[in-house]
Predict the structure.
Amino acid sequence: MLGVRLTGTGRAEVSPRLDNHQLSQLVDTSDEWIVTRTGIRARRLVSAEQGVTDLAVQAAQNALAAAGLTPFEVELIILATSTPDDLFGSASLVQDRLGAKRAVAFDLTAACSGFVFGVVTAAQFLKTGAYRRAVVIGADVLSRWVDWQDRRTCVLFGDGAGAVVLEASAQDRLLGFELQNDGSQNACLTLAYQGQPRPLIDDVTVTLGAYQFIAMNGQEVYKFAVKRVPEVIEKALFRAGLTSDQVDYFVLHQANQRILDAVAAKLAVPPERMLSNLDRYGNTSAASIPIVLDEAVRSGHIQAGHTLVLAGFGAGLTLGALVCRWG
Ligand code: ACO
């Protein structure tokens, strides 16, 4: 078995920006309510001309530049998204637009856990020697799927994309991981298809309809995250032979500052080691972890040799954590 290194990060620039004051012109809410309950002050939304593919390509280009690789050297692209531009998948278009002519590319859907699931999946291909260089992209455009009249959900989400480059190496820097599902709580967070039966001919009926808006039981998701995320992190750390005090930075899915604070408290982690950019981005689903990661790498907070925990949780319900050494 070979090892895996994470060698570059990137993110897409997304505009315009929508702050809480602007949102309060749309629904009955306030900056004070949103900040107190979530920590979010603003989010970015794609322009009408942009989609997930555009954001994903930009994030991947920036990650490849950071890793010093050309698209031609990439052999695997995983696009973690729940909001593809095309339900058949957007990864093929990303592969083409990047010019990654040798790469196999596919979408992976695990909601807000998608990026962590994607990195772990890519790592398996690298560790077996099947491929040597991979790009994992987390990209979502939830603004297309939010009911902008529903104040319980529309204040939470934003659009974005981030990416990371993984390379096979003699030394393994992916130290441990744990992925889990709890389908029994699936109804807590959905973006469900609903259709009406349409008879075609005698005895043959199809169901035609459309996807509905995001529906969420916020309190149940909150309880799930606060209980299960520390557990999944502990398991990943156990596999890595480490404890939380040996971790330099925790890079968690950015859903709610209160969730980040509660997880940090349970793991006895000081707040400065729990990274957050929720105030500026809101919840960007599969994109949130690689965006925080990229900001922290480019600002010099995360440096070669640092030990990181990446952890996602979300619809499914899904959750996962991985421990890695940066660089
Ligand atoms: N502005 C003002 N009032 C609001 C708003 C709003 N935007 N939204 C809800 N309220 C009201 C409710 O109507 C309710 O009023 P009522 O008591 O008169 O009925 C009151 O505020 C309290 O509502 P709750 O839902 O109980 O508020 P809570 O404190 O639970 O906070 C929140 C809601 C922020 C959604 C919280 O439950 C949460 O963060 N849950 C986790 C959700 C999450 O992480 N989702 C994403 C994970 S998965 C993924 O990323 C796709």
